[in-house]
Amino acid sequence: MPYSRKASDMLIEATSLTKDFPRGRQGTRLFTAVHPLDIALEAGQLTVITGHSGSGKSTLLSMLAGMLPPTAGTVSVGGEDLYAMRDEERSRLRNERIGLIPQGAHGAAQPERPRERPVALRALREGGAAARARRGTAGPRGPG
Q1: Sign of the CA dihedral 38, 70, 63, 28?
Q2: In what order do the strands lie in the sheet containing 29-42?
Q3: Paired residues of 42 in beta bridges
Q4: Residues 14-25: what's their mean pLDDT?
Q5: Contact 51, 69 (CB under 8 A)
């Protein structure tokens, strides 16, 4: 069933979310980047995720955004299991409802791009593709 809830109804919930990566040449040892975690994020809520370098913040956000499958646990968006969705549905949901500003040289929040930051943040608040449609601009792959 395609995702159809409005952005104002969106709730992202993770239950027992965990991510392990293979470590070593044989891949027999594991590094746990995200230990079992429960979190709920509501529309309009400001949530700050802090931690030292390498503590799993980006890994957590990637799992919550549907870009990195967890080793264990579930992520639901609007009551639907994000990783039970077909890849096309998950991609559409990410494009229309989930905004993630990357860290590093290509991130929109970099000081050398001060005029782009309000545009990126407005698009996040207004719902990505829906905001582009209202402005009459195309996304990265063209109209529609």
Answers
A1: positive
A2: 29-42, 11-23, 72-77, 80-81
A3: 11
A4: 92
A5: no
Task: Find where tokens 């799992």 sit.
Answer: 63
Beta pairing, strands 29-42 & 80-81: unpaired
What's the mean per-residue pLDDT of the chain? 76
| 48-72 pLDDT tens trace | 888 999 899 999 999 999 999 999 9
What 3-state DSSP class applies to 109? coil
DSSP class of residue 69?
-
Contact indicator for 60, 12 with CB cutoff of 8 Å: no
Please report the pLDDT score of residue 18 as a whole number: 97
Q: How many CA atoms lie within 13 A of 18 on its CB side?
A: 10
For residue 114, give Cα distances in angstroms to 30, 57, 124, 140: 40, 24, 16, 20
- State if pTM tops 0.70: no
The closest of 103, 41, 92 to 66, measured between CA atoms, is 92
Which is it for the CA torsion 122, 123, 124, 127, positive or negative? positive
Nearest by Cα to 67 from 94, 45, 89: 94
Q: What angle do CA 43, 56, 45 make, to 5 degrees?
A: 15
